Amino acid sequence: MQRALRIYGEVLRLVRRLPADSRPYYAKYARENFVNYREVDANDDTALDELFLRAYNHSLWVLNKYSVDQAAASKLKEICGGA
Question: Are 73 and 56 in contact (CB under 8 A)?
């Protein structure tokens, strides 16, 4: 659970790097996704790793879409396990 919260916090920090008009959308999108997956078994490391990898990859996609340097996601990559 602690790792998921760290990832969520880091995703929200990345959202702050986006253009102001798109921030509310992506902040809400991130929250909805983390809420939707809260039922995942915390003991299923494979499922969690897949979700964290998806969060990382989607974050990279969004950063690229708005031409934000992907190096900004280096901490998220570290938390997600070097995805």
Answer: yes
Q: pLDDT tens digits, residue range 16-59?
A: 999 999 999 999 999 998 888 878 888 888 888 888 898 899 99
State the Rg of the chain over Cα: 12
Of 5, 7, 3, 28, nearest in space to 73 by CA: 7
Q: Is residue 81 pLDDT above 80, yes or no?
A: no
Using alpha carbons, list the distances in angstroms from residue 65 to 44, 50, 61, 62.
32, 22, 6, 5
Residues contacting residue 15 through CB under 8 Å, at least 6 positions apart? 23, 26, 27, 30
| C-alpha span between 9 and 3 (Å, rounded) | 10
Structure-token pair, residue 4: 């998921």
